């Protein structure tokens, strides 16, 4: 297949026009006329996943996060991002990014997260338009209610391991059944999850003050996971879309490299810690 054929399938699944206005999605480098026989799907286009694409012989690296989000005036090889563009082009590998268009798609990033956790999705958390079934985040249900501490363990088991692990805010014994999820940094939806009347909200990058004020005001319990881990289930979703479209003609791999920037976790000794 030509790169243009693969891009056409991606843009059908994740229409670029649905990306947020500040976003930068689409083809970053690569020749639409060149052949693609292998694709590698990842969350972050970093030196590690670019190396993985080159080592695995992929002619396309499909990433969720943009490499060049802000405007650039050049991609010199002595710039960290420019070096990645050079490495990709020298190895005849393209880079394509599907970011907020993959967030709002159906299925999208939050569907993959919801599915990994075992939820039955009932609709978007923040509809693209009133009554739309697309939009950001998802609301779904567990088969049965369970305590928050059990649910947090469920989330940890469903996602790839990170040094951050999974942390929850709220009464550990609180029963949860209705769940909101948002892959990536979702603290802008703390008001929306309260209005949605869910029992718990799973997202990433939650900060002290918004989380504390949310819990103090009686909002749903919170489960905070690593940003990378929350979006990693999307890789398999995107891979399946390509496998369904191209069958055996294109080999689609999911990255196995952890690009969560946090590499060390340490906890205070239990004895003598803060009271
Ligand atoms: Zn993200």
Automatic annotation (TrEMBL):
GO molecular function, a single term:
metal ion binding
Keyword entries, A-Z? Metal-binding
**Which sequence ranges are marked TM in the entry?**
none
Return the InterPro entries for the record.
Answer: DUF34/NIF3, DUF34/NIF3_sf
Which positions in this protein are listed as binding a divalent metal cation 2?
Answer: 64
Subunit description: Homohexamer.
Family affiliation: Belongs to the GTP cyclohydrolase I type 2/NIF3 family.
Q: Which NCBIfam families match?
A: YbgI_SA1388
- List the protein's name: GTP cyclohydrolase 1 type 2 homolog
Protein's organism: Lentzea fradiae
